[in-house]
Write a structure and sequence with these properties.
The complex is a heterodimer of chains A (197) and B (262). By secondary structure, chain A is α/β, with parallel strands linked by helices. Chain A is built from seven helices and nine strands; from the N terminus they run βββαββαβααβαβαβα. Chain A has helices at residues 35-42, 64-70, 95-101, 118-131, 148-163, 175-181, 192-196; strands at 2-7, 15-19, 24-28, 51-54, 57-58, 71-74, 136-140, 167-171, 184-187. In chain A, the strands form two sheets. In chain A, strands 6-7-8-3-9 form a five-stranded parallel β-sheet, with helices on both faces. A four-stranded antiparallel β-sheet of chain A has the order 2-1-4-5, covered by helices on one side. In chain A, strand 4 and strand 5 (57-58) form a beta hairpin. The longest helix of chain A has 16 residues, at 148-163. Chain A is globular. By secondary structure, chain B is mostly helical. Chain B has helices at 9-16, 19-29, 34-60, 64-84, 93-119, 127-158, 160-168, 173-176, 178-198, 206-213, 218-251. In chain B, helix 5 (93-119) packs across helix 6, helix 6 (127-158) runs parallel beside helix 11 and helix 9 runs antiparallel to helix 11. Chain B is globular. Classes of the chains: A alpha/beta (197), B mainly alpha (262). Chains A and B meet through helix 2, strand 6 and helix 4 of A and helix 7 of B.
Chain lengths: 197, 262
């Protein structure tokens, strides 16, 4: 159970919600409303007032790296620091199967990152985030760079993760994706400047 | 040892005539550097004369406290220089304190090792040995620490995505900076590596030249220089490492979050 308790992000009123294992919460709101900031605050990548609990443990009770191994923020544009995708992933993980599920040729893991397309990199970024099996996934626009077919494979992988009992918080502009995956939705209001205008 | 020719003020005046070359160039090409040249030359004369007097005084004292005081003052000045070479983000009292402290630690370790263990003068804390060696150690540690901080700061900005991704994947701040820190350390260690490769071929190091001019046997001076090069390598490596760890700590917070604001 991931429990967000009066978390303050930007100009939003305090945000509270719960996500059970195997459930997905969709976060919606116009650009600039703080969707990414909310996910980053949950992962403790940005400072934020309020509390976040995973199975009863508050984020401040454990070292931040341990928290982020359980509560994983996945950005829309993954960054790479080694030559091949495989060098970024844990050795023990069953990567080939995951690559196939995402519609990727397993050879791609050993190709230079610089030669991969944006869409391939985005799917490999999701793989990298899933490989060490975090408890909760905070997905920030996981299909933004993908065509319909590739987006469907990502949706399938998220469903597999949900069936395995993972917790998912999903930010997406794709209404259909949120409708199909999320049992619950959180709406963030437009930023104050926009409301005034 | 052969007697050393001392320089009288008249001799220095003769040497100062050479500055006329630069003055003439400035006038002929309209560089407008005449005033700057004069000020720089006067500063140089005043600073070096003052240092000469200070050292003469400190060397004449028997209490090592004078040497210690001078050493702390030198580290503090080096700390100021370290900060002045940095981007706005590192221009804080905190960085100054930690930077000066780092340089003082490296300077003390390097100098102690050189005087107490390698050279072994009597007493080991003789100011005549401690002060010049500390000066060289501080200068080199300053250069490498400064390079590491600059490289880290630039890279943190440019490779922000990589650092953030690695943090999100559960890396500690030091692991998240891993490749960037390695690159910064390499950058900082390169100048001394190059210096060791060309020293004695392209130019004679200043200290060796000084010893020879002061009447030392050239191969004795070479031995001294070899010792100094090893000492400076160690000092610049240690300075780079400490500055690297310090830099990562300053660019992040206790919750392993990247802090680039401000």
């Amino acid at each position: 159970m991931l429990r967000i308790d009066t978390l303050r992000v930007g100009a939003q009123p305090p945000i509270s919600f719960e996500v059970a294992p195997g459930a997905c919460v969709g976060v919606e709101g116009p650009s600039g409303s703080g969707k990414t900031r909310l996910l980053r605050a949950i992962a403790d990548l940005d400072e934020a007032e309020g509390y976040v609990y995973l199975d009863g443990e508050e984020r401040g009770e454990m070292p931040a790296p341990a928290w982020r191994r359980r509560v994983r923020y996945v950005s829309a544009e993954p960054a790479w620091w080694a030559d091949t995708p495989r060098a970024h992933m844990p050795r023990a993980a069953r990567l080939d199967g995951m690559a196939a599920a995402l519609g990727l040729d397993p050879d791609i893991l050993d190709r230079p990152v610089a030669h991969l397309s944006t869409g391939e990199r985005q799917r490999l970024g999701l793989m990298r985030a899933l490989a060490d099996e975090p408890v909760a996934l905070l997905l920030d626009e996981p299909t933004s760079a993908l065509d319909a077919a590739a987006a469907a494979t990502v949706e399938g992988l998220i469903q597999v993760a949900l069936r395995a009992g993972r917790i998912v918080v999903l930010v997406s502009h794709d209404q259909g994706l949120i409708e199909r995956l999320a049992g619950q939705r959180i709406a963030l209001a437009a930023p104050a400047a926009e409301r005034a205008a | 040892m052969s007697p050393v020719e001392t320089l009288a003020w008249g001799d220095l005046a003769a040497a100062a005539l050479l500055l006329g070359i630069n003055g003439a160039i400035s006038l002929a090409f309209g560089l407008r550097l005449e005033a700057s040249l004069a000020i720089a030359a006067v500063r140089m004369i005043v600073q070096l004369s003052a240092v000469g007097l200070v050292l003469k005084f400190v060397f004449a004292q028997t209490s090592p406290l004078w040497t210690l005081g001078l050493a702390v003052a030198m580290a503090m000045v080096a700390g100021l220089e370290l900060i002045s070479r940095q981007d706005r983000r590192f221009k804080t009292w905190l960085t100054y304190g930690l930077g000066s402290g780092t340089l003082l630690v490296v300077g003390a370790l390097g100098t102690l090792y050189a005087t107490a263990i390698v050279i072994g003068p009597s007493p080991w804390y003789a100011a005549r040995y401690v002060v010049p060696i500390l000066g060289m150690v501080l200068g080199n540690a300053l250069t490498s620490a400064s390079l590491v901080l600059q490289t880290l700061n630039d890279a943190a900005e440019r490779d922000r995505g990589v650092i953030e991704n690695r943090l999100a994947l559960g890396a500690t701040r030091y692991a998240a900076f891993g490749t960037i820190l390695a690159r910064a350390l390499r950058t900082a260690m390169t100048p001394l590596l190059n210096a060791m490769s060309v020293t004695g071929v392209v130019a004679l190091p200043g200290m060796m030249t000084g010893q020879i001019l002061a009447g030392s046997d050239p191969s004795g001076a070479a031995h001294y220089q070899i010792m100094i090069m090893f000492l400076l390598s160690g000092a610049s490596g240690l300075g780079a490492l400490l500055a690297g760890l310090l830099g990562v700590a300053l660019l992040t917070d206790g919750r392993h979050r990247l802090r680039l604001a401000g």
